[in-house]
Structures are given as structure tokens and as C-alpha cells.
UniProtKB/TrEMBL annotation:
Recorded coiled-coil stretches: 924-1066
Pfam family for this entry, one: Beta-prop_WDR75_2nd
Region listing for Disordered, in residue ranges: 746-790, 827-853
Chief localization: nucleus
Protein name: WD repeat-containing protein 75 second beta-propeller domain-containing protein
UniProt biased composition (Polar residues): 771-786
Length: 1085
């Protein structure tokens, strides 16, 4: 068979949280979130997109997306991410955005269009529009080996003036404009931090006669004792105060009077106003409230801290899912006093792309938006693989989609084990699942090991009712670069609620004892309770079957329990898979494949892989084919389970390969990297091979952007009327999609669509029988050929065979009832020739095929009316009774005229033979005319009588208009009620804000009284301490005198003891002397 043509396709990036290339990321100088000046918009930059959100709901109102003007825009090229944004000071609907390709664009974000753009020649890391000169930009640009703070002219697109140049990266920068009352102009204060070095600049325009824009600069420098990580200015104009946070978590407030700073900054001495310390790790962001009374800080502790600067008190917002990345303050746009700006809330961005708004008045989280947490980070943690199986090369992790919502569960960045259900096609997080109930923990010192809970493996039941996770405590030693060691495995079954969330159903600690789990698989067939299995395998060759059954403690409670334990060989289990009906379990021990019966756990067959390599993945084909697909590091093998013979094999061109089954066909899809060929830039090949015939159905090639490779691959959840697509995850957790649409799929979908549109039953297709069109066509064909065909009585559509929720409107059912009634009347009185003299005269000579024209036309008309009704053409402005009667009478008169014409054609000689026949025909025509007039008068009387009888009939009412009128009245009432409720809520919020503001104003007086009370208490403590000191001195003197007396006594005793000892020695000496004298002189006692 001829090999299909190779098609080159391009990838589409699904996530937009981080740049494609990490080298494009800018230093964290510019905040990624910012409120508008009036607080009506929230701006967020994500990769190459700027989102404009509503501050009350967080919904995206506009998106500023650059149009790629490159000639190869259709290819998957990296898009330049946004490095910084700043607002226009004079136009609230415009903002400047700088990109990594050195482009700076002025956006009108409400219209989503570019107003102006220029090339900055250097990467821009931070910028701010000058209030004094809106055509000038303050910029921090990166040179080859230095960073410069410059003044940039937008009109001429050139660098106007350089204020500062640093040889080391700038770690933080902030700008603040203060009104100078003496000079009647604004003065810009800039704080620049480079590691421990701080530089303060005072910028004001020079008063010269030249037209060039020049700025006078005053400098003040000092060194901090730690590395400075964040800087923020107090927004009040009356003081010049800024706060800096360092690497140790301390906050230092520096203060200087504004008039002193305006005179001469170089000789001014900044003094430390106060020092705040609560954070234990690096301080990432600082933000003052708009009134300057509060300071908000955040860091690695995942806690938001609010400092009241007047009293030093603090409050907390703990238990965030990740470290705080950025904070911005929102102005109250409804505040009555515009001279005193008040902060109504704060926008906070976390390190896992979670954005939420915190109301500082009510102290509640108003809304939050979750993003793809680990986008741009290592995929080894986002979608982990079993560490014990990493020795077997070629093993790739599996992407598991939720069978109900189509979302993809992935690991988050929280240390407590947070799983995100991410929808890659819509780039949003649907829900989060916290695996543990403990609070987030952080390291104690730099380089300490941290215990992080992550999910190592997860899967869904086929119906989506259960979600199973295998989680472990991962010890990180020295950061992400070192090896992670899983410990304390726990197997958990989560059950889905009606609202889609999950709750813990069963938890099993150490499911395989001290052995680590290497495989998990769920039975694909859950139609029977005995087939609702789950299997797990470990590193020692033991696998266990788990089954849902009644609990031993409570009969009415069902839990997951271990049903069987099987150990066949003492080798690690590398792969497991159930058959399509769940009756067979295939277990791979390295290069050996064993087949087990699920219900009896008995061994059915054992065979080895064809190439002798370890089996790392297995797939069962559909239930109609007895094949099992086995993947090794070098080959893809298909075995026939009936004959235990190798059906076919396919060799890989590389050790890295990815295999998955096609969702709609009996085929397997293989993705392998290929070497680059001249004039081709495709790095990967995607083959689709038929499982039964081993025929390559299609071949697609694509290129991965940059130097990244594929980490995992799977087919996207099947959507209605959409071509199959492959979802890929690269090594830095970016999501991509490759569409595999072809001509055959398009033709099938077009045929299906044509069949749906050609069905006259419309919305009732598939429920009502389809027989009217065929019978009508058959009757037309038979009439054309001159052959009589009696229409079947059951050819009409029985409307009431359909369910009640798909029945047509009342008017349509009334028409169907009238059609049946008229048909029954015509069957009861099939002909009207008894009252027609012309018909009586001509009836014997008429052919049989032209009998009953009125009944046939009426039948065709009723069938046609049913078809119109089924095609939703039921609206009419004519009253129902008048419509049916006039239609019936017009049809009747038309049929009678047709009878007359037929009768005249049957006897042409009777009208041409003589004048008598002409007189007779003239008389007959006059009688016919009189008869028609009488019949019309009779019908008019009958119609008036019918209208009089049906004057109060409910079918004369236009029910659709009545329902619409009632709905409109209800809608107006609901809107009025909603406006009343909104007004009450608004009044309540305004009253609450008024009470809070009053309480804050009275807080100063209360704090004064408290400070006086504290001073009095301190004075009392001081006096008490002095009295205690005096008493202690007195006791000390007494103790000294007693000690001296005791010392004198002790010395006297010592002296007395020495004297007695000396006397005893003298006595002893004297006696010895006497004894010696006696012995010398011979004196005997």
C-alpha cells in the first residue's frame, strides 16, 4: 500500500502565564499587576498578553495582544513577552507596555488597538511616565554589562539623559512625585537599590532658555546592612518617606521633610524613622496604602501582613497557597472626599499565578482567579514519573483527563499538596484539590530541607465518579536542582460530589508496606460491581487488587479494600493494564509479560518481549480485536492473545518515544524525534498505525520551539464536531496543541451536518418517524406515470409519540388536530358529486384515476402543513379558525373547478355538435354560477356562526404574545427588585465604610489616651522599681554586716583552734623531752 504523504503542522501554545523562553524573563523590577488611577480597572501582564480586569468581579474586559507582523507568523515562533507596563498620567484609557524585543507600545486598552510604537534599542526592565513632561519616560534599560536609569524622549525615540549607571543588576526601584509649594512644580524622588547599596535621586526640571528637556539631579547614597529586595514610597505629599525590605525580612522606614529635601538633598541626612520585623525570610514586595497610614508586606511565608504605622500593630491574612509576588492598592472611586484618597482594597498576585482582591474594610477576599501554577517550571514536579522506574529508559509519564469535565489534574506549587484541575483548551483552572489539611510550611534557614506533599500518580474511574491519588512526602534538599526523595506513600480515593468537587472517601497509608508503588491502573469496565477493580504494583514484584465493598464496622458504608495480594516474581513491576472488559490483567516484570484472570487471580500466560528489553508501557485494543500493544525502549510490539504470537512490530528511531491510542479509531499514535533534514525544520514525527493491519494511516511532523523537548503527550478530550488534537507538555510545563484534522474527517462532519439540515423534522429529528416525505414523493411519481396509488392512512406523523419536553407549541398541536378532523370528515363524505348536476352527468364516462380530487388535495395539503409545522414555521397573524376554514373552502372550490374542466374535456363533441348543446352549456354555466353564489352565502353564514361559537375559545388567544407579555412584566419586576436590593447593598456598604472611617478618625484620640495611660503605667513601674532597689540596698547592708560578724567569728574560732593545737604540740614536745632526759640519766619512773 502506498505510504501517505507527510504533512507538516504547527503547534499552538495553550497557556500564557509565562514566556516560552526563560531567558526572556526580566528582573522583577516592575509589578505585574497595577490598578488604574481611578480604580476602575486592574491591569495584569502575563507573557505576551495584557489582561484588563474588572475590579469588582475579576472578569477579563479587554486584552491587549500584539499583532505579529513577521512573515512567518503562521508558524510556532516565540512571542515577545511583556516586561513592564505603566499608565499614562493624563489619559486614563492609555498605557505604555514594553516587550522583550525592545518594542514600546502605547495602547488604547478599551479599543484594544496600538496608538504608537517605537524601538528602544535596549531591553526595558522598568519604566514610568513623567508627570511634568508626559512625552518623557523614566526607564531602566539593560546594556551589555551594566544597567542604566535614563530619561527617554518618546517623540524623538532617543535617549535624552542618563541619571545613573550601575555595573550590578538593580534589585529594586521606585519613583514618587511630590508637589513643591515654593517652586510650584513637581519634584520626582527615585530610590534605586543595587544589592546593599542605596541611591536616592531628586529630579526637577532645569530653568534654562534652551528648548531641550533637561533635568537637574541631586544624589544621596548610603549602604544597608543586608541585601535590599523591595522599595516603596509613601504616597503622601507632605512627607518624603520610603520603606525598604531586605533579605532578612526586616522593614526599615526612612523619613525626610519635604522642604529640606527640596533645598539640598546631597547634604541631607535620612534618619531611620522606625524598624518593623515579622518576616523570617526574604521580603518580596511592599506597598503603602493611598492615605499613607498602612503598609502591606509579603514574602516567602505565604502570609500577607498589614502594618498600622502610627501604632505599630499588625494584622495578617495567612494560609495563602504560595509566596506573595506583588501587591497593588486600589483607590475608592466612589469616595466623596477626593482630596483624601482612601484604599478600598488590595490586589495580590501569588507565585503560583493566583490573583485575588482583598477588601481591607470588610477584611474579606472578594474574588480570586487561579492560573496554571507551575507554568514555566520543571515538568518533573508538575507531572511526575515514578523514580524507581527511571532506570528503565524510555518511560514517559501519562496525562490523565477528567472524563466528565475534560480537565487535566496537575501538581501545584503549594507545600501542602495542592492539585489543580487545569483546562488546557480554555487556559483556566476549574478547581483545586488540597491533598492535606495542614498549613503551608517554609524553611527555617537557607539551604534547609523542606518537606513537601505532592501527588506521584493519579487516575480517574471510567465514569469519573472516583479520583485516585498516590501522594508522598517529598524532601527537597537544597532546592529544585537536587534529587527529590518520596517518603510515606498514601493511597487516597476521592469521590465526586454533585457540584463537581471531591471529598475524601477512603485513605490507605503505606498500601504496600515498606515497598514503593510503581504502577496504578483502573479497570475500564464498571458496568458490573465485580468488575469495578483497581490494581497497584510495587518494586518487589507484588501487585494488589482493590475492590469497593462494605465496611467491617458499618454495613451501610462502602469503602475500598484490598481484595487480593499476588506475588509472582521478585522483580519490579514496570507496567500494568486491564483489558477492555476488565476480565484480564496484564502485568509486566521487566521483559516478561504475564496475563492474569481478574476474578480468580489465576495465571493465564507468560511470554517475553520480542527484543528482550523491559516492557515500559502496555495498551489493550478495543474489545473487538484480541491484541495487546507492548512498548519497549526500542520497539512497539503487537501480540495476539489468542495465539500468543507476535502480529507485527515497529522500531523506534530514538530511545525517546511517546505512544498513545487513538480515541476514535483502532489505531496507535507514535511520536518520535527525527534528525533535521535540509529545507525541513521538523523535529518530531507523529505516525498513526492501524492495529490490525499495521498500515500507516497518516504521518505528521512538527517542531518544538526553542530547545525544549516533549515531556508528556496525549489526545485532547473529544469535543463535538471537532477534529482530534494532541495535547503536549514540554519540559518546562508549557502546554501545546497539535490539530490533526484531515479531509476525511471534514467530509464526514459535512455529511453529518447535511443530513441534519435536510431532515424536515427539525428539532424533533430522531424522535418522530420519518415517512411523510417518502410517501409524498411516491404519490407524485405515481400520479406522473398515470398509475393510481392509494395513500396510506398511517403515513402521517404521530406528534404525540414524542416526549412531552420536545412537543411543539399549542397552536401546532391544534392545527394537527384540525387536520385529522378534516381528514375524518372527508372520509365520512368522500364525494360531493351528489349535489353537483354536472358531476352526475359526466361521472359514468370519467376515468377511475381521477376520482376524489378533493380528498387527495386535502390529504396532500394536510401533510404539507404538518411538514411546515415540524420545520418550526408555526407563527401566523391570521386567526386559527378563519385560516383553516378559508383554506378548506378555497381548496374545495378549486377542486370543483377542476372537476368541471375534466368533465368538459371528456365530452368535447357535445359542445360543438349543435346550438342546443351550446344553449344547454350556457344554462349550465348560469346554474353553476348561481350555485356558487348560494354556496358562498351559505359558507359565510356558517363562518359567522362558527366565529360566534368560538368567540371565547382559548385557541383564539395568541399564547406566545401572552407569554411574552407576562415574561416582560416579570422581567421588569425582577429588575426593579434587583435595583432595590443593589441600592440597599450599596447603602449598607457606604454606611459601613462611613462607620469604619469615623472609627479610624477617632482612633487617633484613643491612641493618645492609651499612650498617656501607658506613660503613667511606665512611671508607676519605674517608681516601684526604685522602691524595690532601695529595699534591696537596705537588705544588702544588713547582709554585709552579718557577713562581717560571721567572718570575725570564723577567724576567732580559727585562731582559738590554732592556739589549742599549738599548746597541745608544746605539751607533747615537753613530755618527749622529759622522757629523753630520763633515759639519758637513767632515771626509771
Amino acid at each position: 500500500m502506498q505510504k501517505p504523504a507527510c504533512v507538516t503542522r504547527s503547534l499552538q501554545q495553550l497557556n500564557t502565564q509565562t514566556p516560552i523562553h526563560p531567558s526572556h524573563c526580566a528582573p522583577s523590577l516592575s509589578s505585574p499587576i497595577k490598578y488604574s488611577i481611578d480604580g476602575r480597572y486592574l491591569f495584569q501582564r502575563e507573557a505576551h498578553v495584557i489582561h484588563i480586569r474588572h475590579p469588582r468581579t475579576g472578569h477579563i474586559l479587554h486584552q491587549c495582544l500584539r499583532i505579529n507582523d513577521a512573515p512567518n507568523a503562521t508558524k510556532s515562533i516565540p512571542l515577545a513577552p511583556v516586561t513592564c507596563i505603566t499608565l499614562h498620567p493624563l489619559n486614563a484609557l492609555q498605557l505604555y507596555a514594553a516587550y522583550s524585543d525592545h518594542q514600546v507600545i502605547l495602547w488604547d486598552f478599551t479599543e484594544e488597538k496600538q496608538l504608537k510604537s517605537f524601538h528602544a534599542d535596549y531591553p526595558v526592565f522598568w519604566m514610568h511616565v513623567s508627570i511634568q513632561q508626559p512625552w518623557m519616560l523614566h526607564m531602566v534599560i539593560g546594556l551589555k554589562s551594566s544597567y542604566s536609569y535614563v530619561y527617554y524622549n518618546v517623540q524623538h525615540a532617543r535617549k535624552q539623559q542618563t541619571f545613573s549607571e550601575k555595573n550590578v543588576p538593580i534589585s529594586a526601584i521606585a519613583l514618587h512625585s511630590v508637589d513643591s509649594a515654593k517652586q510650584n512644580e513637581k519634584v520626582d524622588y527615585v530610590a534605586i537599590a543595587c544589592d546593599r547599596h542605596m541611591e536616592l535621586l531628586c529630579l526637577h526640571p532645569k530653568k534654562t532658555d534652551s528648548t531641550a528637556d533637561s533635568i537637574a539631579v541631586q544624589r544621596y547614597t548610603f549602604d544597608h546592612n543586608q541585601k535590599v529586595t523591595s522599595v516603596a514610597w509613601n504616597p503622601k505629599d507632605s512627607v518624603v518617606e520610603f520603606a525598604l525590605g531586605d533579605d532578612s525580612g526586616q522593614i526599615h522606614l526612612y523619613h525626610l521633610q519635604a522642604d529640606q529635601a527640596a533645598r539640598k538633598l546631597s547634604t541631607a541626612s535620612f534618619r531611620v524613622h522606625s524598624k518593623l520585623h515579622w518576616h523570617a525570610h526574604t521580603l518580596r514586595c511592599l506597598r503603602y496604602s493611598l492615605d499613607g497610614q498602612f503598609l502591606v508586606s509579603g514574602g516567602e511565608e505565604c502570609v500577607l501582613v498589614f502594618w498600622h504605622l502610627a501604632t505599630g500593630r499588625r494584622s495578617y491574612l495567612p494560609r495563602r497557597s504560595a509566596p506573595i509576588l506583588a501587591i497593588t492598592a486600589r483607590k475608592d472611586s466612589n469616595a466623596k472626599d477626593t482630596t483624601r484618597p482612601s484604599t478600598v482594597g488590595y490586589g495580590v498576585l501569588l507565585d503560583d499565578h493566583v490573583l485575588f482582591q482583598y477588601n481591607s474594610v470588610t477584611r474579606e477576599e472578594e474574588w480570586h482567579v487561579s492560573g496554571f501554577a507551575r507554568s514555566g517550571t520543571s515538568a518533573r514536579l508538575t507531572l511526575p514519573n515514578f523514580e524507581i522506574l527511571e532506570a528503565f529508559k524510555g518511560l514517559a509519564p501519562t496525562m490523565v483527563f477528567d472524563p466528565i469535565t475534560g480537565t487535566l489534574p496537575l501538581n501545584g506549587q503549594s507545600s501542602v499538596g495542592l492539585m489543580q484541575f487545569y483546562d488546557p483548551l480554555q487556559d483556566r483552572v476549574v478547581q483545586n484539590l488540597q491533598l492535606t489539611e495542614r498549613n503551608p510550611v517554609t524553611r527555617t534557614e537557607s539551604g534547609d530541607a523542606m518537606v513537601v506533599t505532592t501527588a506521584q500518580k493519579w487516575l480517574f474511574s471510567p465514569c469519573g465518579q472516583y479520583f485516585i491519588t498516590l501522594q508522598a512526602e517529598v524532601v527537597s534538599r537544597g532546592g529544585n536542582k537536587d534529587r527529590l526523595t518520596p517518603q510515606n506513600h498514601t493511597l487516597r480515593w476521592w469521590k465526586r460530589r454533585e457540584d463537581g468537587s471531591f471529598f475524601l472517601h477512603t485513605a490507605v497509608d503505606a498500601p504496600h508496606g515498606n515497598s514503593r508503588v510503581t504502577c496504578m491502573v483502573y479497570s475500564p469496565d464498571t458496568r458490573y460491581l465485580q468488575r469495578n477493580w483497581m490494581a497497584t504494583g510495587d518494586e518487589n514484584g507484588e501487585f494488589r487488587l482493590w475492590k469497593l465493598g462494605p465496611s467491617s464496622s458499618a454495613n451501610d458504608v462502602t469503602i475500598w479494600q484490598c481484595h487480593a495480594v499476588v506475588r509472582h516474581r521478585p522483580y519490579p513491576i514496570t507496567s500494568m493494564q486491564f483489558s477492555s472488559d476488565g476480565s484480564i490483567l496484564a502485568v509486566a516484570y521487566g521483559n516478561l509479560l504475564t496475563i492474569w484472570k481478574t476474578e480468580t487471580t489465576s495465571l493465564g500466560a507468560v511470554f517475553a518481549s520480542a527484543d528482550g528489553n523491559a516492557i515500559i508501557e502496555m495498551f489493550f485494543s478495543d474489545i473487538a480485536t484480541p491484541f495487546i500493544i507492548v512498548k519497549t525502549i526500542h520497539q512497539l510490539q503487537t501480540w495476539n492473545l489468542l495465539t500468543l504470537a507476535l502480529a507485527w512490530e515497529h522500531s523506534f528511531s530514538s530511545e525517546k518515544s511517546w505512544v498513545c491510542l487513538h480515541p476514535t479509531r483502532s489505531a496507535v499514535t507514535i511520536c518520535t524525534p527525527i534528525s533535521s533534514v535540509a529545507n525541513e525544520k521538523c523535529d518530531f514525527s507523529l505516525l498513526e498505525i492501524d492495529i490490525v493491519t499495521n498500515v500507516v494511516r497518516s504521518e505528521n511532523r512538527f517542531e518544538m520551539p526553542g530547545d525544549t523537548s516533549i515531556w508528556a503527550l496525549s489526545f485532547a478530550p473529544k469535543c463535538e464536531n471537532q477534529a482530534p488534537a494532541v495535547v503536549l507538555m514540554d519540559e518546562v510545563s508549557n502546554m501545546w496543541m497539535l490539530s490533526l484534522s484531515d479531509s476525511s474527517d471534514t467530509t464526514d462532519r459535512q455529511k453529518l451536518k447535511a443530513e441534519d439540515t435536510s431532515d424536515p423534522r427539525g428539532k424533533l429529528a430522531g424522535i418522530l418517524p420519518f415517512g411523510t416525505t417518502n410517501s409524498e414523493n411516491q404519490s407524485k411519481t405515481s400520479n406522473k406515470n398515470g398509475v393510481h396509488s392509494m395513500e396510506s392512512k398511517d403515513s402521517s406523523i404521530e406528534l404525540f409519540d414524542a416526549p412531552s419536553h420536545v412537543l411543539p407549541p399549542i397552536s401546532s398541536m391544534y392545527r394537527h388536530f384540525m387536520d385529522g378532523f378534516i381528514s375524518k370528515k372527508t372520509e365520512t363524505h368522500p364525494t360531493v358529486k351528489d349535489s353537483h348536476p354536472l358531476t352526475e352527468m359526466t361521472e359514468p364516462s370519467r376515468p377511475q384515476s381521477k376520482s376524489k380530487p378533493f380528498h387527495a388535495n386535502l390529504k396532500r395539503w394536510t401533510n404539507g402543513l404538518k411538514m411546515e409545522m415540524l420545520s418550526d414555521s408555526t407563527s401566523s397573524n391570521v386567526s386559527i379558525d378563519h385560516f383553516y376554514l378559508s383554506r378548506m373552502l378555497s381548496t374545495r372550490s378549486r377542486d370543483v373547478s377542476l372537476q368541471d374542466a375534466v368533465s368538459l374535456d371528456s365530452f368535447p363533441l357535445n359542445f360543438e355538435s349543435s346550438s342546443a348543446s351550446s344553449d344547454n352549456s350556457h344554462r349550465l354555466l348560469e346554474e353553476e354560477h348561481a350555485r356558487k353564489m348560494a354556496r358562498a352565502q351559505y359558507q359565510r353564514k356558517q363562518r359567522e356562526k362558527w366565529q360566534e361559537r368560538t368567540a371565547n375559545s382559548p385557541f383564539r388567544v395568541n399564547l406566545i404574545a401572552e407569554i411574552e407579555r407576562v415574561d416582560e412584566e416579570n422581567r421588569v419586576q425582577r429588575l426593579k427588585a434587583q435595583e432595590i436590593v443593589q441600592k440597599r447593598e450599596k447603602d449598607a456598604i457606604e454606611n459601613e465604610i462611613f462607620v469604619v472611617s469615623k472609627s479610624e478618625e477617632e482612633m487617633c484620640d484613643i491612641e493618645k489616651l492609651r499612650s498617656e495611660k501607658r506613660a503613667i503605667i511606665q512611671e508607676e513601674k519605674r517608681l516601684r522599681s526604685l522602691l524595690a532597689l532601695e529595699m534591696s540596698n537596705l537588705h544588702r547592708k544588713e547582709d554585709l554586716s552579718a557577713a562581717k560578724l560571721a567572718e570575725r567569728r570564723r577567724k576567732a574560732l580559727i585562731k582559738e583552734s590554732k592556739r589549742v593545737q599549738r599548746l597541745q604540740e608544746e605539751e607533747t614536745q615537753r613530755r618527749r623531752y622529759q622522757k629523753l632526759l630520763k633515759e639519758k640519766h637513767g632515771i626509771i619512773a
